[in-house]
Amino acid sequence: MFFENGRMQWVFRTQSGKEWRVYGNHMLTGRWYHVTVTWQAETGLKMMVNGQMVDRQTLFVQRY
Hints:
The chain is mainly beta. The chain is 0% helix and 58% strand.
């Protein structure tokens, strides 16, 4: 997980090199958020902020 300039990025990579990324934008510093990220091989990576889905990535990138 990375946070920079109000943007949270979550990266999930399998041992075989498949990689998914999701982003949460417009997040303010100094404020609490409830962030949940889930992954399933069939549906990919999902990010929810305060109970609302903000991003979903179903396709992966092969990194190696």
